[in-house]
User: Which sequence fits this backbone?
């Protein structure tokens, strides 16, 4: 062996070993680095999916109500424009869930040609498969109704879902394809959470307010409402991408709820409401005016709480001075970043007694506000359009009273009225009352038993007088159903038959138009299902109205046996006046007050109530005890409606 | 062949190298050794640096992954000065605290809470996730035990979780209420 070569080789293992050590340690570092980068990429991708999911859910609550309204307007007909598939597709477009950056933003940033490192982008075809029903059918949902009860028996859902609703088989099938909101969807089973007897109150029961930050009511506090709901699954994350598993896909199950909440707060307005002052700037008398519960308005300006415990708005709330609500001192800066969190920390809850729906996450609060269209009715028979019947108070009236002839164009005292009502058989019947023929005056024989008469106010305003306490007996003599069925009455004029004597309707009505007076309505206890009076005309409250309580509250109404219960009464009119004489009558209101004014109207002062004698608000004669509904039994037949749309996840434990 | 004719070769092969050769070889070896030592030192330094950054490069992404999952599922949160305050009925704080109570809401109108807190250990601190006794038998699992300290803070609705690593590295995660 060559000694020189042996000695030369001796250095090679050292160099090789060290080189190998260097290489291996560097490779380990590289591998570790790659693993960490992979971990970070997965985290980022999961974050990306989470944000896409959040924006998608928020988009759904935005898109959904309009689709539900479109479905109602089209009488639940099948359509691709408001199907669940269309709702999800529109929400995905709105939320840009298919791409991390929309093309417009890329263009604005000047990175149209840059390669994206975001592997979460998907095609719209792929995105369409993300949302499915519980049985896995894309573009559909599983309605929360009895026909789908078998799906909710799965351990993933049992005990975690709201009460099921019942409806016709046809509507339940359609509900899986498009959102059905219907008065035929009713509670099917008395389960915990339904506090009133469902056999008596199947449509709107007394249910806990959802656990959300928007404080129309406090979470868990019972409200009169119905919860329509649909369940669906959302799956984000592709299991395989380019042969490699990117992120394990996770399927989450959600409940989309639409709470139909009849207007029930002491003060509600889908417009700008000024609480605490009259139009002339005078403040409400805090000794005479009290508010229990909450206040809602799209936009709210408040000078004092008058005892209210909760304030909610849609666009903005302005406080003239710091107020105390439910024990929490709140200033005008309550919605400022940091202040809200500070208030939450102080009260040790995320639920504040003052809240804006716009800041409350996955929800959409939407008053169904039709403005003065709420008061109108085109024909004696109810509209065939489900949306009109649902949203217009006038269309929901079982009785219509139409003045078709007057004394003259300058004297709008009716001489002929046509009264349509429901019979016990469910059909419609019309009776024509004509002066000199079959409509005797109060001074003539038989005139005192008729529920409709005429009179002039002290200010010479021609009126049709309505006597609520005489209506039931008269209906029965005419072959009509009792006032438990004929519980809502609509007054209007019609100049088609006598255009020379009947002035055309104006909006708002002028003093020359016929008005309606309600008289002798102290005892409305025969109205076991309540009474509603709707008219696009001016309505005078002639004397005390609904001041006689029932002997006991209705059974099963979730009311304490000792509570004093008055039959529910609602009056919707173009203008409401108190008294018909020159005397200034004190006005004492108990219940709720709301307005039909829309978003673009001027400020609404809820207690600017005028007497029948002049056009002045006599602020010193107004007293009010405003309080919320506390039972479905207190809900009058005609009421305004709010929709609260919420998405909540079904807990996966 | 004369015996002497082969002697120089045989002598050289058996007796070693010339001084010049030895010097050259030793010089090369010294250069090589120096280079190897320098490389080794550099490599060790590099490994030490990598080791020092292990918290940020290896542990932090894992913690971030877990926190990401936890915070994304929560509806809202409150920061508490101590774990006991968070698990009990203590008052939340807007200042820095060592525990954050996370609230999870569900369609069944339930609200569950869990507590993420920092607790001292023999070697430093651990970030732990507690299930309160009111929901189930109180138990916890450890998010990370390789941290020196941590703090939670709520600033204008943004939750910040600041972790200090074993070499005083600092990393802050941010999250918010839904």
Assistant:
């Amino acid at each position: 062996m060559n000694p020189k070569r042996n000695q030369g080789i001796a250095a090679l293992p050292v160099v090789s070993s060290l080189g190998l050590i260097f290489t291996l340690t560097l490779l380990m570092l590289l591998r570790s680095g790659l693993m960490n980068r992979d971990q970070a990429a997965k985290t980022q991708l999961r974050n990306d999916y989470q944000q896409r999911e959040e924006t998608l859910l928020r988009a759904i609550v935005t898109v959904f109500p309009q689709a539900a309204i479109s479905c109602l307007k089209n009488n639940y007909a099948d359509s691709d424009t408001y199907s669940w598939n269309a709702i999800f597709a529109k929400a995905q477009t709105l939320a840009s869930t298919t791409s991390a950056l929309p093309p417009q933003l890329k263009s604005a940033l000047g990175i149209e040609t840059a390669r994206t490192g975001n592997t979460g982008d998907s095609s719209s075809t792929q995105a369409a498969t993300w949302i499915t029903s519980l049985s896995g059918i894309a573009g559909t949902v599983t309605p929360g109704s009895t026909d789908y009860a078998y799906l909710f028996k799965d351990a993933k859902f049992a005990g975690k879902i709201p009460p099921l609703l019942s409806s016709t088989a046809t509507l339940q099938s359609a509900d899986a394809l498009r959102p059905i909101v219907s008065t035929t969807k009713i509670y099917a089973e008395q389960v915990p959470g339904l506090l009133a007897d469902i056999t008596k109150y199947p449509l709107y029961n007394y249910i806990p307010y959802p656990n959300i930050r928007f404080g129309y009511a406090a979470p868990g506090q019972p409200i009169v409402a119905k919860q329509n709901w649909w369940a669906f699954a959302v799956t984000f994350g592709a299991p395989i991408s380019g042969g490699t598993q990117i992120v394990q896909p996770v399927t989450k199950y959600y409940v989309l709820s639409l709470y139909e909440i009849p207007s029930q707060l002491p003060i509600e307005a889908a417009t700008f409401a000024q609480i605490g002052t009259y139009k002339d700037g005078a403040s409400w008398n805090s000794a005479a005016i009290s508010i229990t519960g909450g206040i809602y308005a799209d936009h709210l300006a408040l000078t004092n709480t008058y005892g209210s415990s909760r304030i909610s708005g849609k666009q903005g709330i302005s406080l003239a001075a710091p107020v105390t609500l439910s024990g929490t001192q709140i200033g005008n800066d309550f919605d400022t970043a940091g202040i809200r969190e500070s208030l939450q920390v102080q009260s040790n809850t995320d639920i504040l007694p003052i809240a804006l729906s716009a800041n409350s996450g996955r929800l959409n609060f939407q008053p169904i506000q039709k403005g003065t269209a709420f008061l109108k009715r085109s024909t004696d028979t109810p509209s065939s359009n489900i949306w009109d019947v649902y949203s217009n108070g006038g269309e929901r009236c079982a009785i219509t009273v139409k003045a078709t002839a007057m004394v003259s164009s300058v004297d709008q005292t009716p001489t002929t009225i046509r009264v349509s009502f429901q019979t016990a058989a469910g059909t419609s019947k019309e009776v024509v009352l004509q002066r000199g023929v079959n409509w005797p005056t109060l001074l003539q024989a038989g005139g005192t038993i008729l529920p409709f008469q005429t009179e002039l106010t002290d200010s010479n305003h021609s009126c049709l007088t309505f006597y609520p306490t005489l209506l039931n007996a008269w209906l029965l003599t005419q072959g009509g159903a009792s006032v438990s069925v004929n519980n809502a009455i609509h007054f209007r004029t019609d100049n088609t038959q006598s255009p020379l004597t009947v002035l055309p309707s104006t909006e708002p009505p002028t003093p020359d138009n016929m008005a309606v007076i309600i008289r002798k309505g102290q005892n409305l206890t025969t109205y076991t299902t309540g009474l509603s009076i709707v008219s696009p005309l001016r309505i005078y409250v002639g004397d005390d109205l609904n001041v006689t309580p029932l002997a006991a509250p209705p059974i099963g109404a979730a009311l304490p046996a000792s509570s004093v219960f008055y039959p529910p009464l609602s009056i919707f009119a173009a203008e409401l006046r108190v008294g018909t004489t020159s005397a200034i009558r004190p006005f004492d209101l108990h219940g709720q007050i709301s307005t039909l004014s829309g978003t673009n109207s001027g400020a609404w002062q809820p207690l600017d109530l005028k007497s029948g004698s002049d056009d002045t608000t006599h602020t010193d004669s107004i007293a009010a005890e405003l309080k919320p509904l506390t039972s479905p039994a207190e809900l009058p037949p005609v009421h305004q409606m709010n929709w609260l749309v919420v998405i909540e996840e079904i807990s996966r434990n | 062949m004369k015996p002497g004719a082969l002697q120089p070769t045989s002598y050289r092969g058996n007796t070693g190298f010339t001084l010049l050769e030895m010097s050259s070889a030793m010089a090369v070896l010294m250069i090589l050794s120096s280079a190897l030592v320098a490389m080794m030192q550099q490599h060790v330094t590099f490994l030490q640096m990598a080791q020092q950054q292990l918290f940020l490069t290896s542990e932090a992404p894992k913690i971030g992954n877990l926190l990401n999952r936890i915070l994304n599922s929560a509806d809202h949160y409150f920061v508490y000065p101590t774990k006991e305050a968070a698990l009990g009925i203590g008052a939340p704080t807007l200042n820095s605290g060592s525990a954050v109570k996370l609230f999870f809401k569900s369609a069944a109108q339930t609200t569950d809470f869990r507590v993420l807190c920092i607790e001292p250990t023999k070697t430093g601190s651990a970030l732990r996730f507690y299930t309160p006794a009111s929901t189930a038998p109180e138990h916890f699992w450890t998010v990370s035990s390789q941290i020196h300290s941590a703090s939670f803070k709520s600033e204008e609705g943004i939750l910040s979780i600041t972790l200090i690593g074993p070499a005083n590295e600092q990393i802050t995660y941010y999250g918010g209420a839904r």
